[in-house]
Every structure is written in structure tokens, then in C-alpha cells.
Amino acid sequence: MFPDVETPLTLNGQPLERTPGSIFTTYSTPPQPAQNAAVSVRELAAEGDSRQWEIAVGMEAMPQLNDLFLQIEFEGDVAQLFLDNTPVADWFYDGRTWEIGLRRFADRLRVQPFRLNITPLSAQQEIYFDLPPTFRNGRALALKSVAVVPQYAVSFVITKPQ
Fold first, then answer.
1. Residue range 118-148, pLDDT digits in tens
2. What pLDDT shows up at residue 23?
3. Given 13, 83, 105, 124, which residue has the most CB atoms within 10 angstroms?
4. Which keywords describe this protein according to UniProt (predicted)?
5. At 115, is the secondary structure helix, strand, or coil?
6. Which domains does the chain have, with CATH numbers?
7. Is the distance from CB of 15 to CB of 9 less than 8 angstroms?
8. Which range, 7-21, 27-41, 45-59, 146-160, has the best average confidence (pLDDT)?
9. Taking the mean position of all CA atoms in its chain, how far away is CA 137?
């Protein structure tokens, strides 16, 4: 924060830790209770060459969070997320974790799960990858992991004392 403020800052009645720097002063919030969200994954029947999973996310913690992010690690060509049989997000495999903000889907996720569809990547396709997938029998198609990560936010309003 620049310039430094004269009145001590508090959050929910707790003083913030103040660390002066050469130009800026840093204020640290006390640790907040962790908000965790449950995630469950169930494989569904394959559809053609693709594989499908149902991903249910517990949204009970959402009111205390800025957002929840679904992180999906997979190998394949394209992954698509569906709600109500409508595609809501997609990602071409590039070796990185696919991250989807869930706040915009919160109301619908309270009553229904995502459906994840991954299409296979053929070893015959000439694509350069920094992080290449593992090919088995000439194709890559795997769901490696699914996780939910909370995002916290703190807002400050600073008023001059009367």
C-alpha cells in the first residue's frame, strides 16, 4: 500500500500485520479458515472413440470464496465439459493443467454434475508438444486427475478518521 496509512488496519476486528518496505508497506491478513469443496469422478460408458466421466463438485463453500477452480489433467486431443448436454468449456491438450472457474456455473452445479468428454489423440498426428502425452496402442486418452482449488479474496476500504 502506498503511502502508508496512519490508522492501524483491521480485518474482522483483528489487526493486520504491517511490514514496511522501502516504498510500499505490506499488510498481511490473519489466516482464514480453509474452505474445501468435495469432488467426485465417475466414469461413464464410452461414446465411440471418446471416453466420458461425470464430475460432481460440492458447492457448499462457494459463498465464503471468491471462486472455485476445477483443475483437470488429461491426455487426449480435446476435452469438453457439458452441463445439460450443452458444451460450456473446452481445452485442446497441451500438457498443462486445464483450469475452469466454477462461480459462473455455481447454481447449476448445485443440482447436476458436469459431463467430461475426452477424444483420443492419435500418434499419427504431427503435433509438437513440450510435454508430450503417453501413447498406448497408437493413441493417448486418459484422465489423470481432477481437483478443486478454492480462491480467496479480501477487500479493504480505508477511510480517513474523523
1. 999 999 998 998 888 999 999 999 999 999 9
2. 80
3. 105
4. Hydrolase
5. strand
6. 1-31 (no CATH), 39-151 (2.60.120.260)
7. yes
8. 45-59
9. 32
Going from the C-alpha of 61 to that of each of 31, 37, 46, 64, 66, the distances in angstroms are 17, 6, 32, 6, 10
Question: Sign of torsion, CA 92 94 95 101?
Answer: negative
Helix (H) or strand (E) holding 107: helix 106-109
Element (H or E) spanning 106, and its range?
A: helix 106-109
Answer with the residue of higher pLDDT: 28 or 80: 80
d(CA 93, CA 118) in angstroms, rounded, equals: 10
Residue that has been written with the C-alpha cell 447436476 in this structure? 112
Report which of 89, 83, 99 is spatially closest to residue 147, judged by C-alpha positions. 99
Distance from C-alpha of 104 to C-alpha of 117, rounded to nearest angstrom: 20
In terms of C-beta density within 10 A (0-12 exposed, 13-18 middle, 19 or more buried), how is residue 58 classed?
middle
Q: Which residue has the higher pLDDT, 18 or 145?
A: 145
Evaluate the omega torsion of the peptide bond into residue 3 and state whether it is cis, within 30 degrees of 0.
yes
Take residue 27 and report the three cell numbers written for it.
Answer: 499488510
